[in-house]
């Protein structure tokens, strides 16, 4: 028996993260027993676990998903812990020793905020020489800087993280990071910190411009290096006006526009840093999970385009940076641009809108490797060219865009060997894997996984390439369950909903459509409902009520906000319905053509349905938290909203007047009609009248296949999934997509991009179909009364057109597996794995009644009405399927 994946507050050995009390979690594998009967947590001040701080003793009511232990944490202290587990087979095991280390826990900083007297667009480097005269036993760097910082010791980067201190509303809170620098700081050296503009100042969002930053106009740095020596003494080096500052060779950086590096530039004179006013936001220990370089992409091919360009193709649309080795004569300007797609074989980037998304480098005649520091790109193709400028002013005119008649020369073919694309995203453990017998579906799954990586750069973004790259709440909401199947997203969403809370606080509970909000001050149903849906999904996936406790007031505030809008001055209850909403965004049943954004489903109906959903989730949360009065209030409100919905949109017998695919889907999903069967028939008819092709947008698409399957139309669900023509998921796969497109018709069948106004090739929303693949196609879906996947409904929906599926989901409770394969036309083989401590309710698909009496197979150990009840273990079966029943009949 082994105890694995031990985490504190859902992080492995967290250093300097923000939390009040530790919450421990772990998994058990290779046990004889089926269940944990008790567990005991020990916390100590030393790694040998001798200086005990806490011993919970063996407890029977402890959860391996989230076991909180109350303790007062001292600042800057490492604590060690183990968990001992006993099982129902009388086994006992102790985990390895794990640790968590507190941050500054609210203590005062010895360092002061520093900046420089004047600054332009260029990055500045603040530095201080530090003398180390004795042997160092432990060293920590506590640091933050605005906009973005990179700390170095003797010119070498400290840690691997990029884009620190990450992206949030800096007027509300500013994260600081902690680095263990013991190994680095053993001799005298220079601590230097380079600052770039990032999201803090410069152009970002809709209103950002270079003249005025959102959060400030001046770089600010705060750090504290604490060195403990072997003789027991301590040295603290905080930032203050004894630090020096100079300008760097990074003459410009911007999130949208890229970076410029001038190696011919004499870096500025050394000046003194000055103490500056602290920024407005509250200094807070980090919440963001590290963003690092995750995959290196050497160019897959070099393309000489018809237009005479030299273009590299990575073979995959990524978010990230690159490294390029260059060796050019002094004064050479290298110009790099990124794009997502070629057009007529040529480099193309009009769909990035105003984002310049480029890199300029001015060579000083030496060999160098260039890598951007304070920006990122969303790209697959890179165009690289160069020109020689005799005069530096000319090079700047080129970079500023003032000199337009530049004659560039394409780079020689050797550029292919000198360029490496670097994919960058938040570090989240992978939990899901899904492979089918259909290569196109496998590519769709891979594209969704890339969509997640590419849009999980600290904030769940809509897209990584054009002049948005923002935390659109609706996109995040519809994709959140899929994301949690693929990766352990607890820490990522925890930070995001913390951001959401802070934005709501200053807006009377209203959830801005974008979080962090930047200048977006509007809200919409479905988008704002992220504040109830994401925490709820997290609770369901990870089983930690902590997320509901911390976020409950925001859930409530959102529902109360909608209620206040709903109750109009005329005494009516339809204000929310009549507010402005995005509706079934990008659905095909609107009337906007290829540039259209609005779907055909009544926005007010969608708004009411989501108002009720948020109210229900808030009521359920109140019940879980023991807030009975609140629970009753929101339950009653939810009942009233249902009455309003029925009165407005349904006939007394349950016929819906919202006659769109999404309208019927929402009706089924939320039990709105009194006549469910009728809705199913209407949905089927509506699809049929559209040639059995989908028309759904952001609202309908994520639930389309699930509702069809639940209504007995899995055949139709597979038909839509496997459709290779427009509109459908495989249409884009067949056109060579390597991520998920924003629009069903982002690219037309002839390969030309359909529009440039709002058209990204890397939006993950429609990738939400992967949730259905895990939960229905593979059949691993959580029971209603379960959290953390302790109890799962194993109900795979096999289809001969897909042939086979092998799925693994390493849930918060352990590793679930489900696989099926058609051995021939009528024989199917299925295999399942139920993790320790878990139970499954298994529905064997198309199983003939007689097999359930076969007591030799452990699958049938406990059967009631042809449903198998499984405990932890591995199971397998092959049988001859019975004839599938026909889909819902029309009247
Ligand atoms: C974004 C979307 C977002 C939408 C809301 C777009 O510009 O890219 O994904 O949800 O606006 O209207």
Automatic annotation (TrEMBL):
SUPFAM superfamilies: Six-hairpin glycosidases. Keywords: Hydrolase. Residues 304-387 form the Alpha-L-rhamnosidase concanavalin-like domain. Residues 430-776 form the Alpha-L-rhamnosidase six-hairpin glycosidase domain. It is an enzyme of class 3 (hydrolase). The keyword Hydrolase applies. Its EC number is 3.2.1.40. GO terms for molecular function: alpha-L-rhamnosidase activity. Gene3D superfamilies: 1.50.10.10, Galactose-binding domain-like (2.60.120.260), Immunoglobulins (2.60.40.10), Maltose phosphorylase, domain 3 (2.60.420.10). Residues 779-855 form the Alpha-L-rhamnosidase C-terminal domain. GO terms for biological process: carbohydrate metabolic process. It catalyses: Hydrolysis of terminal non-reducing alpha-L-rhamnose residues in alpha-L-rhamnosides. InterPro entries: 6-hairpin_glycosidase_sf, 6hp_glycosidase-like_sf, Alpha_rhamnosid, Bac_rhamnosid6H, Bac_rhamnosid_C, Bac_rhamnosid_N, Ig-like_fold, Rhamnosid_concanavalin. Residues 134-268 form the Bacterial alpha-L-rhamnosidase N-terminal domain. This is alpha-L-rhamnosidase.
């Amino acid at each position: 028996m082994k105890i694995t994946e031990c985490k504190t507050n859902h992080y492995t050995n967290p250093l300097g993260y923000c939390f009040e009390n530790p919450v421990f979690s772990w998994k058990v594998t290779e046990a004889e027993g089926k269940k944990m009967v008790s567990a005991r947590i020990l916390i100590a001040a030393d790694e040998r676990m001798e200086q005990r701080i806490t011993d919970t003793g063996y407890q029977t009511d402890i959860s391996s998903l989230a076991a909180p232990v109350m303790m007062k944490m001292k600042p800057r202290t490492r604590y060690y812990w183990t968990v001992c587990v006993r099982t129902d087979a009388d086994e006992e095991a102790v985990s390895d020793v794990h640790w968590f280390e507190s941050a500054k826990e609210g203590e005062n900083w010895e360092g002061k905020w520093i900046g420089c007297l004047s600054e332009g667009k260029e990055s500045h480097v603040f530095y201080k020489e530090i003398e180390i005269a004795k042997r160092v036993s432990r060293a920590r760097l506590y640091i933050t800087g605005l906009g973005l910082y990179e700390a170095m010791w003797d010119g070498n980067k400290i840690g691997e993280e990029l884009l620190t201190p990450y992206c949030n509303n800096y007027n509300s809170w500013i994260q600081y990071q902690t680095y263990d620098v013991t190994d680095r700081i053993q001799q005298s050296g220079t601590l230097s910190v380079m600052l770039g503009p990032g999201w803090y100042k410069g152009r970002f969002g809709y209103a950002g411009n270079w003249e005025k930053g959102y959060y400030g106009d001046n770089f600010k740095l705060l750090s504290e290096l604490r060195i403990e020596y072997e003789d027991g003494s301590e040295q603290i080096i905080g930032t203050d006006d004894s630090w020096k500052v100079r300008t760097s060779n990074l003459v410009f950086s911007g999130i949208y526009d890229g970076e410029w590096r001038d190696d011919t530039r004499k870096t500025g004179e050394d000046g003194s840093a000055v103490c500056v006013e602290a920024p407005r936001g509250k200094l807070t220990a980090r919440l963001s999970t590290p963003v690092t370089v995750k995959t290196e992409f050497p160019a897959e091919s070099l393309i000489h385009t018809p237009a005479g360009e030299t273009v590299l193709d990575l073979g995959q649309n990524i978010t990230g940076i690159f490294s390029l080795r260059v060796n050019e004569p002094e004064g050479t300007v290298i110009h790099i641009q990124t794009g997502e797609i070629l057009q007529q074989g040529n480099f193309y980037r009009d769909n990035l809108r105003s984002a310049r998304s480029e890199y300029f480098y001015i060579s000083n005649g030496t060999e160098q490797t260039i890598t951007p520091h304070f920006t990122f790109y969303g790209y697959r193709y890179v165009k690289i060219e160069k020109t020689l400028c005799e005069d530096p002013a000319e090079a700047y005119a080129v970079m500023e865009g003032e000199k337009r008649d530049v004659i560039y020369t394409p780079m020689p073919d050797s550029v292919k060997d000198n360029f490496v694309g670097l994919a960058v995203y938040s570090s989240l453990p992978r939990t899901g894997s899904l492979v089918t017998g259909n290569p196109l579906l496998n590519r769709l799954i891979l594209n969704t996984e890339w969509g997640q990586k590419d849009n999980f750069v600290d904030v769940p973004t809509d897209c990584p390439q054009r002049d948005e790259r923002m935390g659109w709440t609706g996109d995040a909401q519809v994709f959140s369950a899929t994301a949690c199947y693929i990766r352990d997203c607890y820490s990522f969403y925890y930070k995001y909903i913390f951001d959401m809370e802070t934005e709501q606080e200053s807006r009377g509970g209203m959830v801005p459509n974008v979080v962090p909000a930047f200048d977006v001050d509007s809200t919409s149903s479905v988008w704002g409902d992220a504040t109830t849906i994401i925490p709820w999904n997290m609770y369901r996936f990870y089983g930690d009520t902590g997320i509901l406790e911390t976020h409950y007031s925001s859930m409530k505030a959102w529902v109360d906000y909608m209620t206040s809008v709903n109750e109009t001055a005329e005494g009516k209850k339809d204000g929310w319905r009549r507010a402005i909403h995005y509706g079934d965004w990008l659905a095909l049943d609107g009337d906007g053509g290829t540039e259209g954004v609005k779907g055909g489903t009544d926005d007010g109906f969608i708004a009411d349905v989501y108002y009720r959903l948020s109210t229900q989730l808030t009521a359920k949360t109140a019940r879980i938290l023991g807030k009975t009065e609140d629970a009753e209030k929101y339950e009653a409100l939810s009942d009233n909203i249902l009455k309003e919905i029925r009165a407005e949109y349904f006939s007394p017998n349950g016929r819906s007047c919202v006659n769109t695919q999404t309208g019927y889907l929402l009706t089924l999903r939320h039990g709105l009609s009194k006549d469910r069967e009728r809705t199913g028939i209407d949905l089927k008819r509506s699809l049929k009248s559209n040639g059995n092709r989908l028309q759904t947008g952001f609202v309908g698409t994520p639930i389309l296949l699930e509702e069809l399957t639940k209504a007995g139309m899995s055949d139709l669900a597979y038909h839509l999934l496997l459709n290779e023509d427009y509109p459908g998921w495989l249409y884009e796969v067949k056109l060579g997509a390597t991520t998920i497109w924003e629009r069903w018709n982002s690219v037309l069948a002839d390969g030309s991009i359909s529009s440039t106004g709002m058209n990204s090739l890397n939006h993950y929303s429609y990738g939400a179909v992967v949730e259905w693949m895990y939960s229905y196609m593979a059949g691993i879906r959580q029971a209603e009364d379960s959290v953390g996947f302790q109890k799962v409904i194993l109900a795979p929906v096999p289809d001969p057109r897909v042939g086979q599926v092998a799925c693994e989901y390493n849930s918060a409770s352990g590793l679930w597996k489900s696989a099926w394969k058609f051995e021939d036309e009528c024989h199917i083989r299925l295999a399942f794995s139920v993790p320790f401590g878990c139970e499954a309710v298994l529905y064997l698909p198309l199983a003939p009644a007689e097999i359930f009496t076969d007591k030799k197979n452990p699958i049938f150990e406990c059967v009631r009405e042809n449903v198998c009840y499984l405990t932890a273990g591995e199971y397998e079966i092959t049988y001859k399927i019975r004839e599938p029943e026909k889909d819902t009949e029309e009247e």
